[in-house]
């Protein structure tokens, strides 16, 4: 009978153990968020759309949540991290391009004259991207990005760029996925720049990353097919482009969308206009001490019209300084 | 002690029950496939890449399988079903377009003169698609497609078009998903034409459908955002376009790819060229009685170069007549 008793205790412990696990999962899913209206509005929304008894219930396959990347999931100051990647690549590639010494834009990059680099405006940035993001196969580029993201450090924090992701947002991504949401990135950043590391860093696989892209071309090289990255724009996933990208890539309207700048406004409008309950969230950079404080006047990540519309329509605005206990993991 | 004994028997039965369930799942996963080399090559591949002890093991997130649609998952004769949709739409829209009576192409459609319609070639088909797939919002178009797919019938079989999907392929999709594969459509067909019904019919959600597309434009209508379908090509997901589409939408190389025509050859080549074990499958239409028999000479779904390359490289070729017990569900 002792054997039977032991078996019973063994099975009982299994049952208890799984109950304990459930309780852990039912603890605070957002421990890095301070209690308050912001956190509560997110939790209330999730509880509502996942409650089968609610009029706002949404079945799991339609629980689509879209996240901007720069300034929403990771930092973006003093300028987009992808621009730093391009600048670093110009320096690596310079020995193969003696002609760059006669080009004022590339010369400014090589001389670390950022003020001058930025004076070339969007056209200049595009030229740097084209020079550093094309002319190789997709697999070669992916390897270059992986090497960079695993070694390059931010000048101010000395952290790896991939460590400058927001701990509260990592918890939010996990929380949404645990509640049957499918999480997507919808970013103005380059799709080929993000995909090599989004799964490791955010738990978002490449097929759930929407972004800007250049054209690629299929080519046979000695019987082996490759995809060549061309110096030509394919799609800009910003502003009006975000709802377009969501339609082309996902084909469903999000029920929750997260951004931090005016470039995300159309994505939030598109989300809000759907039928049923929706969650629109703006991350407001208010923490000059732990991160950066900027909004209406910033050239990077300007939040002006979006802030007005969020206030007017009662969207959730995250005050980084007051709503987040920590910034980085 | 009886209580303890009963508890023990209860738990034991739970364990036995779950073992039985496993055995059921381990029954024939492809009952509509005849035994033979074709079926075995698919099962051997799946067993190998999902076996953690195998040198060919692939972790679940990378088990990407891509499927062509026309002629691979559903029939495509006497011409692509999407063309029939366009022809039906021309007839519905004709009263609003008196000018079509003076246009030889549209006149031929309205007079059911298919020989003449097809004589206008690709340019003519494109004109029909532009006239019927644009000039409305994405949501309006989606509703039109849903209405059509739920009511339109094929002239030869009198089945709904959505019933002309291949039962053996439905089983294959289920089998792959049960083994941790993520299944994608990669089709030359229109992405907005497929997405409204692929989840119901194939269990493939819209975000896993890659296809050809027109441009769409974000527009505010009285404060409500809409996406307008424009009569302009955005992307053709055929031939060299298939590996490009796979890169842009999925960002990972498939480990298994299924097609039926020369338009799928580059997708199969791209799949085959990846590292590790891969499965390349061509569906060969050999069944004139239960479906259609066509290959090297067909204007729809021509399989010529692809058949040579499949034979040369030892890819799996499904002989519909001999490998499939049934065609439609």
Explain the overall architecture:
Two copies of one chain form a homodimer. With 329 residues, chain A is of the alpha/beta class. The first copy, chain A, is 43% helix and 17% strand. Chain A is built from 13 helices and eight strands. In chain A, strands 1, 2, 3, 4, 5, 6, 7 and 8 form an eight-stranded mixed sheet that branches. In chain A, strand 2, helix 9 and strand 3 form a beta-alpha-beta unit. Chain A starts with a helix and ends in a 6-residue tail after the last helix. About 3% of the residues of chain A have low confidence. The interface between A and B is large, with 42 and 42 residues.
Number of helices of chain A: 13
| Secondary-structure class of chain A | alpha/beta
| Helix amount of chain A | 40-55%
Q: Which of globular, elongated, flat, extended, rod-shaped describes the shape of chain A?
A: globular
Unreliable residue runs of chain A: 15-25
Terminal-residue CA separation of chain A: 52 Å
Q: How many β strands of chain A by DSSP?
A: 8
Write the H/E string of chain A, N to C: HHEHHHHHHEHEEHEHEEHEH
């Amino acid at each position: 009978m002792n054997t039977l008793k032991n078996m019973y205790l063994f099975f009982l412990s299994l049952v208890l153990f799984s109950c304990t696990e459930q309780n852990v999962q039912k603890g605070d899913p957002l421990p890095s968020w301070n209690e308050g209206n912001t956190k509560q509005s997110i939790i209330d929304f999730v509880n509502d759309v996942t409650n089968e008894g609610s009029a706002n219930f949404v079945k799991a396959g339609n629980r689509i949540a879209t996240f901007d990347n720069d300034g929403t999931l990771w930092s973006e100051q003093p300028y987009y991290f992808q621009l730093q990647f391009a600048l670093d690549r110009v320096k690596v590639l310079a020995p193969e391009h003696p002609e760059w010494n006669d080009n004022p834009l590339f010369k400014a990059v090589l001389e670390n004259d950022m003020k001058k680099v930025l004076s070339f405006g969007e056209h200049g940035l595009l030229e740097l991207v084209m020079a550093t993001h094309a002319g190789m196969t997709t697999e070669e580029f992916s390897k270059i990005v992986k090497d960079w993201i695993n070694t390059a450090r931010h000048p101010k924090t000395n952290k790896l760029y991939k460590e400058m992701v927001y701990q509260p947002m990592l918890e939010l991504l996990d929380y949404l996925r645990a509640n049957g949401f499918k999480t997507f990135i919808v970013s103005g950043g380059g799709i080929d720049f993000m995909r090599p590391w989004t799964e490791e860093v955010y738990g978002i696989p490449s097929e759930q990353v929407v972004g800007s892209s250049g054209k690629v071309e299929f080519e046979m090289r000695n019987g082996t097919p490759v995809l060549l990255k061309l110096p030509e724009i394919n799609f800009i996933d910003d502003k009006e482009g975000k709802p377009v990208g969501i339609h082309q890539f996902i084909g469903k309207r999000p029920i929750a969308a997260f951004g931090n700048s005016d470039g995300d406004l159309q994505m939030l409008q598109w989300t809000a206009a759907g039928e049923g309950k929706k969650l629109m969230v703006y991350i407001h950079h208010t923490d000059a001490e732990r991160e950066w404080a900027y909004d209406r006047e910033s050239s990077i990540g300007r939040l002006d019209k979006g802030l007005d519309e969020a206030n007017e329509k009662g969207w959730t605005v995250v005050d980084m300084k007051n709503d987040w206990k920590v910034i980085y993991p």
